[in-house]
Prior knowledge:
Blueprint: E1 13-15, H1 34-45, H2 47-60, H3 64-72, E2 77-83, H4 98-113, E3 117-124, H5 148-164, E4 170-174, H6 184-199, E5 206-210, H7 212-215, E6 229-235, H8 243-260, E7 264-270, H9 274-284, E8 291-297, E9 300-302, E10 312-314, H10 318-328, H11 337-351, E11 357-358, H12 360-366, H13 374-381, E12 384-386, E13 395-397, E14 404-409, E15 414-418, E16 432-440, E17 443-451
Parallel strand pairs: 1-2, 1-8, 2-3, 3-4, 4-5, 5-6, 6-7, 7-8, 9-10
Antiparallel strand pairs: 10-11, 12-13, 14-15, 14-16, 16-17
Amino acid sequence: MLDGQNNLIKLDGVNLGGWxxxxxxxxxxxxxxxxxxxxxxxxxxxxxxxxAFKDSVYKxxxxxxxxxxxxxxxxxxVRIPFNHTLxxxxxxxxxxxxxxxxxxxxxxxxxxxxxxxxxxxxxAAPGGQSTSFIADPDLFINLWNGTINQNxxxxxxxxxADKYKNxxxxxxxxxxxxxxxxxxxxxxxxxxxxxxxxxxxxxxxMLFIEGNNxxxxxxxxxxxxxxxxxxxFHIYPWFFNNADSIAAHVNVYTSLxxxxxxxxxxxxxxxxxxxxxxxxxxxxxxxxxxVSGTAFWTWKKMKQTAQYPYYYGIDNTTxxxxxxxxxxxxxxxxxxxTEMQNGISDFINNSKFQNCSVDTSISNLLKVCNPTGMESFxxxxxxxxxxxxxxxxxxxxxxxxQLYYELINVKGQTIWTGKQINNQDFSxxxxxxxxxxxxxxxxxxxxxxxxx
Length: 452
């Protein structure tokens, strides 16, 4: 994978699931689609309050503080799953909502401010690209039944591409999340039509193309649907859950990359125990597999009801638990109007970044850098890195003699390596944030540097 200046790049980051595309289990409930969450909530609190709730989720679930923290964790990309209803209501097709554009504009501005790429992911196309709740499907007319919703999808992507064609912080467009259709030819034909629609207004951005059977099967691709594209696959325990199976699948994707000369990217992985996640990462990060990065699912979710570890966890409350349990399973005890109102207030407040808590086991497993760990390393080795900020020189004072250094930019690219960093002239570097990674015999530590 290459950036806009044709430099090699890996995209390692997180998904912003549960924000612009709702799935009940992320919020502490069951496997429930967004339209069902809306409908059931509306039956208790009414349409006006439900709309206000949606606006509050958009404004509070992910904010500038989240993107800032993602950048500080040294991730360089966020994948942004969104429902088509963010931009287009089903009862007014082809009319795109200013409030939806404003949400995307805001997160892209935060990404620019903190040097984090964005992948725009159409997680739920009109009608739904699968029958699973994750696609928010319609009951009778899905994406594959006729041309109505396919035309809407083509036009929607054209509108997105036309608006953001010159927005460099966008790494690319993820055209369809986890499609599932038989025959596969239907998927290929729709991909080609959407690509034509995008390319009619935007020839700049990379396209992320997911395989059939929920981003697993790429056997139908015998050529590239577009020259500027990446194949995207997903890994979850319900697909395969042992090292041999994961490695076998990734090897198939690597062979696809080699045969068609296109990069591969793991756009989703997670929802597993730490041991399996560690094994998965080892495979994905093995250079022989040629995977151009990963995005963890997901940045934030309800922690008390999470079966597997989270990155940032949201505290549950009695009223929200009763509300989301009934919303996702209406045979459960029905919350009162007051209980749901209180539960909604609790959820919105607790989902704000400053009120969430990190799962250190996941952050330690996934973290690209370890800025907090530098202090203990420095104390152990009598380490001093100065000046910081720097303009020309970076000096390291240490009792450790066998060190190897890497200087890394915010895109994750190693721009300098060596065994001796003192007196190196870095005056030609552009101003901004860098990471100095220091390797010794049995450990690696990273610290941040600011170039003035």
